[in-house]
Design brief:
Length: about 140
């Protein structure tokens, strides 16, 4: 998906939604500058999720590990952008970032959780960076 494109997701189908009828995304839209993904749900909720936040919160094993003890704090992603979004069936999307990270599968419930809890999750991330002496800025490359 190119910048400022959107993907309409299938909503309302029995096979796509669980019996609990959780909110379902109706649109994923990447901003022109590729720095924000807006996820709109069928209950009217919409979340503008910054690319940096999505990248450092990636559900991939590379970031989350295989247990809470293995979870990594990812620094230096302040300038990351979204290159592409690939819908995966009726349950998730794969986001490809310009740092070539592409292994996270962002389920609809996970994207909703990121949106609903952005303030708390973001502050926890900033606190982790500070505690570990890390920065949101990219490290300077040796000349």
């Amino acid at each position: 998906m190119a910048a400022d494109d959107s993907t309409k997701t299938r909503s309302g189908t029995a096979s796509a939604r669980s019996a609990s009828a959780r909110p379902w995304p109706t649109e994923l839209r990447v901003s022109r500058d590729r720095r924000t993904l807006t996820v709109t749900y069928d209950d009217g909720a919409a979340f503008a999720l910054p690319a940096e936040y999505l990248r450092v919160s990636s559900p991939s094993a590379e970031v989350q590990g295989h247990s809470p003890a293995q979870r990594k704090t990812v620094p230096g992603k302040i300038n990351v952008a979204i290159m592409q979004i690939e819908p995966l069936g009726n349950y998730a999307a794969k986001i490809v970032f310009d740092d070539m990270h592409s292994t996270g599968i962002y389920g609809w419930d996970y994207l909703r959780d990121l949106g609903e809890n952005e303030e708390t999750r973001w502050q926890a991330y900033l606190d982790e960076l500070a505690a570990k002496g890390l920065s949101r800025e990219q490290a300077a490359r040796p000349v």
